[in-house]
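Task: complex structure prediction.
Instruction: return structure tokens for all chains below.
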Amino acid sequence: MADVVLAIRDLHVTFETPSGPLEAVRGVDLDVQAGEMLGVVGESGSGKSVTFLASMGLLPTRARVSGSVLLAGEQLIGASAKQMRSVRGRLLSMIFQDPLSALNPVHRIGDQISEMLRSHQDLNRHDAEKRAIELLEIVGIPQAGDRARQFPHEFSGGMRQRVVIAIAIANNPKVLIADEPTTALDVTVQAQILEVIERVQERFGTAVVLITHDLGVIARVADRVNVMYAGRNVEQGTIDSLYDHPSHPYTRGLLASLPRTGKQRLTPIMGFPPNMLNPPSGCAFHPRCEFAAEICKGDLPELKSLGDLQTACVRANELPKAEVLK
Amino acid sequence: MLRYALRRLAWSIPTLLLVTFLVYLALRIGTNPVESFKRANPRATREKIQQYIDVNGLDPNYVLGYFRWLKNFLTGEWPRSIKGSREVWPALKDAMANTLRLGSAATVVGIVFGLIAGVLAALRPGGKRDVFINTSAFVGISIPPFISAIMFQLLFAVYWQRWFGESLFPTSGVYPAGHSGFDLFLMLKFMALPTLVVAIQIIATYSRYMRSSLLDVLNSDYMRTARSKGISEMRVLIKHGMRNALIPVVTIAALDFGSIVGV
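Output:
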């Protein structure tokens, strides 16, 4: 087992809303190992982004966060603003979904990278600029020297996402959180951006958390997968074991709904994601689950080892084997 | 582009003619100085009356009268004012200088304080400070200047004198009677109340502009990117927030500076 760099334990995040408290994350346990690519899958509202925004300390102040997030042994939940500032961008950095709006329109690309460098390293303006150009080259931007003097509107979407990556990796962080980095991009550009992220991961040994709802993306690049549903992780394991014999009914449903060559019809998961203001009792998936029984409405299921997977399903042992999806 | 500009410029000529004609018409229809002249001088001869009409350009035919006025205006032969028969230009010059001075001062003061108020309001939307600034802005916009001007005169001059024996600010004028030459402090003292009256509405509008513009920016994705860099909140706010939030406000400010004389 490799070293764990980021350990999230029993993380809860609650937002106060006009219609009452909304618990977006309900006790997430999750480990990120050094240098790995961890995929986090789930539909909109499953709490996958909120989990990591909470780790970054980037949630709005009205969010209540409890639990534990250890980054290289340092507790981030309840840390002072100053401590969080020193962590953000240095040990832990983040790539956001929409590269078109993630860059500040009034500052030059090079300056936006330099700012990240100089906020954590003792560099003069000239050296920071030189390093910024190197970073642009690393993420595959041609004529980096000229491009550094340009503004975000002079870049295409894919190129901007490369810039966002260059900013995120500027201080060689231990963990890079990529929150749906390819969702807003063309399919052809998606592949290029994934390649850049993989290259960074290999070259610098950065652990990458890839948050996405696209199982295809996960299958292509991730080492391990964590499936989230209604603010909890319902299944985790290596990419091979999870795709070969998924155990949790939700994971099975997700995989069955993927388009595949030779498959005539897609099998959707029936129903809708739960209303998080009033989540179902017990396993939040039971109203949509074809294997649901009375016991599922009882306690919240915990993750239990099942073969080489960890599954949060009380009936996991009784379920028929999933058909092998190859 | 040049052709377009020239065309627009050419169009301003008929517009100006029409506007001046309408104003001329309104003034002529609204008042009849000839009648008042007759009343004031009941024994005036027909020649005297005709002379009064000619000197002041009061032709009974409005169209003819308008074009006579236009010719005089363009050639610079401005008749004296009907009341007091003073030269028009020196009076106009003084009024313009005062308007410009008061307008610039009020616009500068108004924009500076308006921006500060707007930022303070936007930092904690929905908080007590935000509610206070918004309510004040609403009240400030609602009270017309001619009311607030009289209120300030009463408070800072009339009642102040009654309470403390000496008024804090003068009620009118540019300098005290009989003063000659330039005195900055005295001038500022005389300007204070009128500047305040004009500035209140500017402060109120700009605090609203700034608040909404900054709120938009604060919720944008690049602010989150800036925070994710681990730089100080102050730097995030000024370097990333203000610089973007000021863009629409500066546009409006540029227009407002252009219309100072019309304030």
